[in-house]
Amino acid sequence: MTIQRSFELVDIVKETPKVSTFFFKFNKIAEPGQFLMVWVPGSEEVPMSVAYSDKKSIAISVAAIGPASNSLHAKKIGDYIGLRGPFGKPFTLKIGTKRIALVAGGYGAAPLGLFAERIKSSHKEVQIDSFLGARTREDLLFVKRLEKVSTVYISTNDGSTGHKGLVIEPFEQELKKKKFDCVYTCGPEMMEKAIFDICAKNNLDLQASLERIMKCGFGICGSCMMDDLILCIDGPVVEMRELKRLKEFGVSHRDKAGVLQYWKK
């Protein structure tokens, strides 16, 4: 659906002090890893990952951190919001997969939670290990949701719960004990780059959800270019063979004006 339509907000669930999940009446099923273009009157249209999706509704989990997201948080049940999509390439599960790892940093748990639930509904034999990282205990997202369908490992920067440190550390520890057929990651790009380096070193398959500024959602404007990929159609989920050749991944990105910026290491 490339043309924007208004959809009714039918439920709001408070997930953390900053994050709420917004449910809309929606009759098209999205795949895990896809995104919607979301427009609240008075703010710019922005891309947001799908957190829940079925035949009757769709949901996005949103942190109140900017003008567009704060405008959405001000809405109430019964209000109407402009939506387009779903867009983009989703996460995929290869035939014969036995065990996977999900590595989420912060809000990256939203699409991975949907992916884990979809896997368990159709491939119960697949074992899932979920590694969730956040700054603090209060920032952790979808812990209970993922505990229902996977083995969960928690990391917080301040040590308020779980492992004190980065989410990549318990992942590396479990990697010494278990064989993963594929790793899936969503979160800050420098975390994803660290996961990529570990997977490349250990000859592991990887799918990463990458983020760039997106405006059109269907490959016309070019604002979401990463090397020669147009992430709104060639991503946001990118597989290992593509990640290996990307020169900008974990190195640079462009701001809203198109000016090249380098990630801080």
Topology overview:
Blueprint: E1 5-14, E2 19-25, E3 35-39, E4 46-53, E5 57-63, H1 67-73, E6 80-87, E7 99-105, H2 109-122, E8 127-134, H3 143-147, E9 151-156, E10 163-164, H4 168-175, E11 182-186, H5 189-201, E12 206-209, E13 225-226, E14 229-230, H6 231-234, E15 237-239, H7 240-243, E16 252-254, E17 260-262
Provide the number of structural domains. 2
Q: How are helices and strands ordered from N to C? A: EEEEEHEEHEHEEHEHEEEHEHEE
Q: What's the main sheet like? A: 7 strands, mixed
Any idea what the shape is? globular
Write down the overall mean pLDDT: 94
Query: By CATH's scheme, which homologous superfamily of the largest domain applies?
Result: Nucleotide-binding domain of ferredoxin-NADP reductase (FNR) module
The largest beta-sheet arranges its strands as 10-9-8-7-11-12-15
Continuous helix count: 7
Query: Would you report the number of β strands?
Result: 17
Structural Rg: 18 Å
The portion of residues forming beta strands comes to 25-35%
Bin the helical content: 10-25%
Ranges where pLDDT stays below 50 over 5 or more residues in a row are none
**What is the structural class?**
alpha/beta
Highest CATH level, the class of the largest domain: Alpha Beta
